[in-house]
Specification:
The chain is of the alpha/beta class. The chain has helices at residues 24-37, 43-55, 59-64, 72-86, 91-95, 116-136, 150-158, 171-183, 225-228, 244-253, 272-281, and strands at residues 22-23, 69-70, 97-100, 103-106, 139-144, 162-168, 190-194, 205-210, 257-266, 284-291, 297-304. The strands form three sheets. The protein has a seven-stranded mixed β-sheet, sandwiched between helices. Strands 1-2 form a two-stranded antiparallel sheet. Strands 3-4 form a two-stranded antiparallel ribbon. Helix 8 links the parallel strand 6 and strand 7 (190-194). The relative contact order is 0.10. The model is unreliable at 1-17 (pLDDT under 50). This is Release factor glutamine methyltransferase.
Length: 306
């Protein structure tokens, strides 16, 4: 995958033409040193992705083109990006896009960065969708609180017979999702609706899926600056117990779930018991519990009780 430069550098300083030549390898080394001095947790990884992204290089080209001389415009663009990262702005927000499940997704101020943990949710949903399609020839799902649209768009990209609805309270998030649907070729199968949880939708769905806000309100101030200062608060804050969104989804899911359908959710690492209780009390039964690559509880799937 190739990240094309998103940063637009300003005009060059008059002394740029007299600068000492710097190779790609040297630029990478300097960037690592700058990030390490700033106390970033993963200076080498951040430097690799940021420099490659700004320069429009693949990670392989970062190695094979180490002797390439960096021109003044490129140096300035990287320098501006490095300063932003030193101020704890996440790498992919600086670049303006991030890969998720092999697809590219634009980011905006109104959306979370799609993260690898959420790929576990997609992986757990796909077998059900494919089975539903094999049985009935089609599948319809709703993605609640879609953000960038990463979950819905990825599911549609993997299941060509599926159609989806995606909701969000943020008009800006829906605009971002609309652009991502166009980029990834699924816009004709995705309907975007503005509203909170089930307010904007009608009918029943084979699958209800969501990565809702689940952080306890009092814990947000202690989050890493990359999350606390750059992710939208509405996509983080799960209320006093972190369960507000799950309660809302559980309360409305029965009216919108087709017979034999599932509710698939991403959860916080310590929320399995609490979220399961919310859905059990609403008349659902836990069917699948999956962990992420770090061994933390990450995905729960519920079915209607018999």
């Amino acid at each position: 995958m190739r990240w094309w430069p998103i940063i637009r550098p300003a005009s060059l300083p008059c002394s740029a033409s007299r600068r000492i030549e710097v190779t790609l390898s040297e630029l990478y080394r300097q960037t690592v040193e700058a990030f390490a001095a700033a106390g970033l947790d993963a200076p080498q990884e951040d430097a690799r992705h940021l420099v490659s992204g700004v320069l429009g290089l693949t990670l392989t080209e970062m190695v094979t083109e180490g002797a390439r001389v960096i021109d003044a415009i490129e140096m300035q663009a990287v320098a501006e990006a490095v300063e932003r990262r030193k101020n704890r702005e996440p790498v992919y927000r600086i670049l303006g896009a991030r890969e998720f499940y092999g697809l590219d997704f634009l980011l905006s101020l109104d959306t979370l960065e799609p993260r690898p943990d959420t790929e576990i949710l997609v992986e757990q949903c796909l077998p059900f969708l494919k089975r539903r399609i094999s049985e009935t020839g089609r599948a319809r799902f709703v993605d609640l609180g879609t953000g960038t649209g990463a979950i819905a768009i990825t599911l549609l990209s993997q299941c060509l017979e599926a159609v989806g609805v995606a909701t969000d309270i943020s008009e800006g998030a829906l605009e971002t999702a609309r652009g991502n649907a166009l980029i990834n070729g699924v816009a004709d199968r995705l309907s975007l609706q503005q509203g909170s949880w089930f307010e904007a939708i009608d009918g029943r769905f084979d699958m209800i899926v969501s990565n809702p806000p689940y952080i306890v309100s009092d814990e947000i101030a202690a989050l890493q600056p990359e999350v606390r200062d750059f992710d939208p608060l509405a996509a983080l804050d799960g209320g006093e117990s972190g369960l507000d969104a799950y309660r809302a989804i559980a309360a409305g899911a029965g009216d919108h779930l087709a017979e034999g359908g599932i509710v698939a959710l991403e959860i916080g690492a310590e929320q399995k018991v609490a979220v399961a209780r919310v859905f059990t009390e609403a008349g659902f039964k836990l069917s699948v519990a999956a962990k992420d690559l770090g061994g933390n509880d990450r995905v729960l799937i519920f079915i209607g009780s018999d």
